[in-house]
Write a sequence for this structure.
């Protein structure tokens, strides 16, 4: 008999689970590629965001040169999480690369998927954010 599957087709595979760390990695990759459509899918905000808005705000902060992620910690109940991250940005003003290390970034479960809180992403990148 011909089988379309090798192994058990119902086996759980963690590689396809979008953890908070994977969500942040996807957001930072989209940012480094200036893929504003993809980035907009990976963030959440209390305000209605547009591609042009995030492109303007994030481009003004500089160019993401490199990043590294720490472990994620999911709160009891599983609705929020925190991921630590270090980023290295080339300033839009003077072209100097500066690092920001071990900054906590919040993620919230939205429509059953973790998304990065936009204000927390702004803080990671060094923006002054109210609240």
């Amino acid at each position: 008999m011909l089988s379309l599957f090798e192994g058990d087709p119902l086996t759980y595979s963690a590689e396809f689970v979008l953890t908070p760390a994977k969500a942040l990695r996807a957001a930072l990759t989209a940012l480094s590629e200036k893929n504003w459509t993809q980035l907009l899918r990976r963030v959440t905000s209390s305000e209605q965001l547009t591609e042009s808005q995030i492109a303007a705000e994030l481009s003004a902060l500089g160019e993401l040169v490199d990043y590294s992620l720490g472990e994620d910690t999911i709160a009891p109940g599983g609705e929020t999480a925190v991921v630590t991250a270090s980023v290295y940005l080339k300033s839009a003003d003077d072209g100097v690369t500066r690092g920001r290390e071990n900054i906590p970034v919040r993620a919230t479960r939205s429509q059953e998927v973790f998304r990065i809180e936009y204000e927390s992403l702004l803080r990671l990148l060094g923006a002054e954010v109210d609240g």
Remarks:
- Strands lie at 43-44, 63-74, 80-90, 97-110, 113-117.
